[in-house]
Write a structure and sequence with these properties.
Largest sheet: 3 strands, antiparallel
Helix content: 55-70%
Distance between the termini: 27 Å
Length: 287
């Protein structure tokens, strides 16, 4: 309990600093900074490993979002200077993990534990779900931000036909490799910080390394799920006036793919949910 109280105090101070920095650097708008403060504080209070996963995702994604801004401005209809995110985007990338870390700390009292089904299958599933969540978020962001800068034309995941950059559901080799690397980084972070903060049985220490390939697979798999949903349930069209790929129908828009069932935030939320569940189940059987 003492450790939890210390982390809670650290959480308030550190989260304020991170949120203020993100707001000043235009990574978050005001609503995003407020929601980001709350989410970060909860993660830090719940455990330093969970905070590390969140912060690795946030900082690497923010850096990549700012890469090649001139090129992205000419392609992305929703381009914002600095990649500024609002509260909806913050929660779309953190709501499920936040719920899972709250459940985790309510069960453990704030004591971190290893991925070890012999000790607790339920807690192993919770940690696995959190890994899957941030591997998916990181993978999707890295894939989008690096893929759009590629010189190669992407292909629609459902037909493999070449499409314009910015089309929902379009994939590229560079983007898929980036998604895998993003997931791998999440797994590596989980293992390194987890071994420093969690109490592991001797025979379970080496098993923790399995989180790295699992997270890499979750990064790639989450990106593919996101692309499949985007290609089928999210509308993409080419505006002949703006000369950009857009997400809404209009008289000047020629349809490329998809339907008007989900918007971008909903696609992200569904792909995160599915990847989280799949990774949680995988960890409950692997560890």
């Amino acid at each position: 309990m003492e450790g939890f109280l210390v982390r809670s105090a650290v959480a308030v101070v550190l989260s304020l600093g991170i949120a203020a920095r993100a707001y000043l650097h235009r990574s978050l708008d005001r609503s995003g900074a407020i929601s980001g403060f709350l989410v970060t504080a909860i993660h830090i209070a719940a455990g330093y490993r969970f905070a590390a996963l969140l912060l690795v995702f946030f900082f690497t994604s923010s850096k990549l979002t700012k890469m090649g801004e001139e090129k992205k401005r000419s392609i992305d209809e929703d381009f914002k200077e600095g990649g500024q995110r609002n509260w909806i985007q913050v929660l779309a990338n953190s709501w499920l993990a936040t719920i899972l870390v709250v459940v985790f700390v309510s069960v453990t009292g704030g004591q971190d534990t290893c991925l070890d089904t012999k000790k607790s299958k339920f807690l192993t599933g919770l940690i696995g779900g959190i890994i899957g969540h941030y591997a998916c978020c990181n993978g999707d962001t890295w894939s989008s931000e690096i893929g759009i800068l590629s010189n190669a034309q992407p292909r629609l995941i459902t037909t493999f036909k070449t499409v314009r950059k910015g089309t929902n559901g379009a994939v590229s080799v560079q983007g898929l490799v980036a998604a895998t690397a993003a997931g791998l980084l999440i797994g590596l972070t989980c293992v390194i910080v987890g071994l420093l903060t969690a109490e592991c049985a001797t025979d379970a220490v080496l098993n923790q390394l399995l989180a790295i390939p699992i997270a890499a697979a979750a990064g790639l798999g989450g990106s593919l799920i996101d692309s499949l949903l985007g290609a089928t349930l999210q509308f993409s069209g080419y505006c002949t006036v703006r000369k950009k790929v857009v997400g809404k129908r209009a008289p000047t828009v020629i349809k490329i793919s998809g339907t008007d069932v989900l918007d971008n935030n909903a696609v992200n939320a569904v792909s995160v949910l599915l990847t989280t569940l799949l990774t949680a189940v995988a960890c409950m059987y692997i560890f």
